[in-house]
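QA checklist item 7 of 12: single-chain prediction sanity check.
[x] sequence parsed
[x] length recorded as 287
[x] structure emitted
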Amino acid sequence: MPSAADRLEFGPPPAKASLRALGLALLVHTLLIIALTWGVHWKRSDKAASFEAELWSSMPQEAAPRLVEAPPPPPPPPTPTPEVKVTPPAPKVDIALEQEKKRKLLQQQKEAEAQQLQDRLKAELQAKKEKELKAKEELAKRKAAEEARKAETKDAEKQKQADALAKKQREENLKRMLGQAGATGSADAKGSAQKSSGPSASYGGKVRAKVLPNVVFTDDITGNPTAEVEVRTTLDGTITSQRLIKSSGNKAWDDAVIKAIIRTGTMPRDVDGRVPTPMILEFRPRD
């Protein structure tokens, strides 16, 4: 059988004592002694404990009554604690939602300001356009008035020149007629030649017969005023122009005569086959 020496040879090596383990053991014992000492001291310092001692003497003596401690006075009633109303905490607001609301509000304010600015700029632009349009209209009116004034001035100048030319022609004709020495015409003759070479005596009747049917005049007129018209024709008698050289004093009668000559269109030929030009015709409403 194996011996004890053999068994120890194969056993674990004996544990070596360490300073750390020794120190811990001393610390634990020290703490234990302190705890016991404190416990004994605590029991001796109890003020509520009472002691009894019996004294024996040779003479009988009556023991004094035991000292009885008076009961402590009852504690005062507790002061009621005032009720403190605790304000419930405000519900937590979702910070992200609040920030989103603020962002939307700021965005709306910016959009409103931008819209106001746009409306103001639009109104200013519209006012500027209206002002420019009004200025253009005023300029166009002034130009039109200036052109009309120039046209009137030009027409008046043309009429003045035409009247001056007609007057000059009448004066020349009159001078030529008065200056004809040895003229053989009658006192009321209107020719300018030395000898009468004008229309025949019957030519006036032909002209009257052709023109008078074209006269349209229905107004009442006082007296029998005379309108003198100068008529120019081509060689074949086609009327090229007619001009009032003496007014009758009644514009309606003067216009009726001019329109009648225009409607006539051509003058008749004389007995010699010619058409005298120019000729001065006299028209009276009662002839």
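[x] summary fact logged: The CA atoms of residues 179 and 192 lie 9 Å apart.
[ ] second reviewer sign-off
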